[in-house]
Design brief:
The complex is a heterodimer of chains A (287) and B (354).
Chain A (H helix, E strand, L loop, with lengths): L2 H27 L7 H19 L2 H25 L4 H24 L21 H19 L1 H11 L1 H6 L4 H27 L10 H11 L4 H21 L7 H16 L18
Helix pairs in contact in A: 1-5, 1-6, 1-8, 1-9, 1-10, 2-3, 2-4, 2-8, 2-9, 3-4, 3-8, 5-6, 5-8, 5-10, 6-8, 9-10, 9-11, 10-11
Chain B lengths: L2 H31 L4 H13 L2 H26 L7 H18 L6 H30 L3 H24 L33 H18 L1 H11 L1 H6 L4 H18 L1 H9 L10 H11 L4 H20 L8 H32 L1
Helix pairs in contact in B: 1-14, 2-13, 3-4, 3-7, 3-8, 3-10, 3-12, 3-13, 4-5, 4-6, 4-10, 4-11, 4-12, 5-6, 5-10, 7-8, 7-13, 8-10, 12-13, 12-14, 13-14
Classes of the chains: A mainly alpha (287), B mainly alpha (354).
Chain lengths: 287, 354
């Protein structure tokens, strides 16, 4: 395989991770635990399929997918911010809910227990770079970095995640900031799912297949910094490309390459490679 | 009934009841979307789960796995730690039991083989539950993330071991165990014929009783609960919080891992890749709806097992994934209503007191 193909394949694999990790990063920096990324992605993939199926336009699909991610972002936001639900539990519930709902609605609309009909996607071309979502995915990292570090709202997000009481005392509406942050994470992770669905021209059950958790791994391994998290996404995607390319060649068993993101995350959390420190108020409801 | 008992019972039970009611109502809406009558669908569910001996026995089978895994999560939660690793722990336990059972010579008496297989399962749980505990105590690594990541690592590792080293041709499972199998309940109750329910159900009940005794009647359990309520205060009172964390995670891992014996010793007699099918995640709901009380866990496990078995009976009317949606709603409603109900109860009591 020539290096150009290797790089383009790696970038294509990285797109859903980049979207979801950027989204998860915004929510986590605001203090909301992002175990929900898997559900947001799946909801985005499903809604995009519906949008594209009924309109025949992938652009409508993208908008619908973003709305699908947003919807469950708000469900998570309302549960954790308004009702102060445990964020981990709410995250698990949202994931379960989306997996179940997508299958139920798939049955309701298409009478299939496995996949949707073929839908319209973008003309991606051989390299895949004709797909605007690839560029949007790559852009999500600098956009989130700019939002967090260069805008007043980004500073409010950081304040809400580090010290909500102090933020509230200087007049920041912590609840509002957290709602917006979790909404952004829903939309971005949803777009990651949109890319998967439109790229494959259909929705299949549970098609995100754990990518949301790899994205969380990237956020943590990237120490909650957008640039490092983006780098982690590329690293994990490179490992995956290697895994695909090495199949049948022998060498390291594919299961071990598949473990890389998870093992690296555990190692990072254990502080063996410089400590990964979470936002101070991560997971804590605002009083 | 004493006043304080009534107050505690209210606080423990009300959120579960509120959550179940919310799920019931949202479930009605979904069922109506499919043009079916909710009463009819729920009736079928109950009928499929409890209306015949086979269905009921299947509920007991599912209750067994969920009870063990739910206890593992509840015990860790009592120490203030969230064990999301039950899925991997169940698999590791099943694998450990299978390895021991395969290694033992055929004809090993059950009284020797079964405890050894249980030890094998416990070893799997000790490793997969203990590691996150150690990383938490020694390095402050957040147990939620570590246990989630460890799930993937454990499942991939076991997949590799089975596929590359242990599988019987054309399957994704190990050879059958030579010893350590436990009888099915149908050997004592013929009406249960065909069901996977087996003697490990009683092991699960025994584990719940042990958990209750440990948590509420021993100094070790007191340390666990104190740590969970207020780790700093526990530390000042002389409890070594780090050790409690390690112990609670290890015990939790062992309990969850023992759930794997339901499948290996009681049902299929081999380890099969992917047999857990999400039970380890559903067990989180079991622990939460059971309010982290060992007996609550048993009841909640029975409830979710009923839902899951009943879901099979309604497939002609609505998709069986309805059950997953209902589970999601129950968990979400539960998480949202616990703080809310507690606050409402407290302010109501203040009004009464004033």
């Amino acid at each position: 395989m020539n290096p150009f193909d290797f790089i383009t394949q790696t970038l294509r694999i990285a797109v859903p991770y980049l979207f979801a990790a950027s989204g998860g990063l915004v929510a986590e920096r605001a203090g909301i635990v992002s175990l929900t990324l898997e559900g947001f992605m799946l909801s985005g993939a499903f809604s995009a399929t519906l949008g594209s199926y009924y309109s025949g336009s992938p652009v409508i699909g993208v908008l619908a997918g973003a709305a699908g991610g947003l919807l469950f972002g708000l469900v998570h936001g309302i549960a954790t911010v308004r009702f102060r639900a445990d964020q981990v539990v709410s995250g698990i519930a949202v994931n379960l809910l989306v997996i179940g709902l997508t299958q139920v609605v798939l049955m309701l609309l298409f009478d299939s227990s496995s996949n949707s009909p073929r839908v319209e996607g973008f003309q991606a071309g051989l390299s895949g770079f004709g797909d605007p979502l690839v560029w949007m995915g790559l852009a999500s990292v600098p956009v989130v970095a700019f939002l967090l570090y260069r805008t007043p709202f980004g500073l409010r997000i950081q304040a809400a995640g580090e010290h909500p009481e102090a933020a509230a005392s200087v007049g920041i509406n912590v609840r509002f900031v957290r709602y917006v942050a979790v909404a952004i994470s829903g939309v971005l992770a949803g777009l990651g799912g949109v890319y998967l669905a439109l790229d494959q021209h259909q929705f299949t059950n549970n098609m995100t297949a754990g990518r949301g958790f790899i994205a969380i791994a990237a956020v943590i391994f990237g120490r909650w910094n957008p640039w490092l998290a983006g780098g982690a996404c590329l690293l994990f995607a490179t490992a995956e490309t290697l895994q695909i390319q090495l199949q049948g060649v022998g060498g390291i068993p594919s299961q071990f390459i598949g473990m890389i993101p998870y093992v690296l995350t555990i190692v990072a959390l254990a502080g063996l490679m410089g400590r990964a420190v979470a936002p101070a108020a991560l997971g804590r409801a605002e009083d | 009934m004493s006043e304080s008992f009534r107050l505690r019972a209210e606080e423990a039970l009300l959120p579960s009841i509120v959550a179940l009611l919310i799920a019931l109502i949202l479930g009605d809406v979904l069922i109506l979307m499919f043009g079916e009558s909710p009463a009819h669908v729920y009736g079928r569910m109950i009928e499929g789960a409890w209306g015949n001996p086979y269905g009921f026995a299947q509920v007991l089978y599912k209750t067994t796995t969920l009870t063990f895994a739910g206890l593992g999560i509840a015990l860790a939660l009592r120490a203030g730690l969230f064990n999301i690793g039950a899925e991997g722990q169940l698999a590791a336990g099943a694998f450990g039991a299978a390895i021991v059972g395969i290694t033992l010579p055929a004809g090993t008496p059950g009284l020797v083989a079964v405890p050894l297989c249980l030890l094998g399962a416990a070893a799997g749980g000790l490793l997969t539950g203990g590691l996150p505990g150690v990383l938490k105590a020694k390095f402050g690594a957040h147990e939620v993330i570590v246990t989630i990541m460890l799930n993937f690592v454990v499942l991939a590792l076991l997949n590799w071991l089975v596929v590359e080293h242990l599988r019987t041709a054309d399957t994704l499972h190990t050879p059958e165990i030579n010893a350590g199998a436990v009888p099915r309940l149908s050997e004592f109750i013929p009406a249960f014929h065909g069901s996977a329910a087996n003697v490990t159900f009683f092991f699960a009940i025994a584990a719940a009783i042990w958990c209750w005794w440990y948590l509420f009647r021993t100094p070790g359990g007191y340390a666990v609960r104190a740590t969970g309520l207020q780790p700093d205060a526990a530390e000042y009172s002389g409890i070594r919080v780090g050790r409690v964390w390690i112990k609670a995670m290890a015990l939790g891992g062992i309990l969850a891992a023992l759930g794997g014996t339901n499948f290996v010793l009681g049902y299929k007699h081999y380890y099969e890749d992917g047999f857990t099918g999400g039970s380890g995640f559903l067990a989180i709901a079991v622990a939460i709806v059971g309010r982290n009380h060992p007996f609550g866990v048993v009841l909640a496990a029975f409830f979710f097992a009923t839902l899951s078995q009943g879901g099979l009976a309604i497939h002609a009317l609505v998709p069986k994934q309805m059950v997953e949606v209902l589970q999601g709603i129950v968990i979400l409603a539960m998480a949202a209503s616990v703080p809310e109900v507690q606050r409402a109860l407290r302010s109501a009591r203040k009004v009464v007191a004033a």
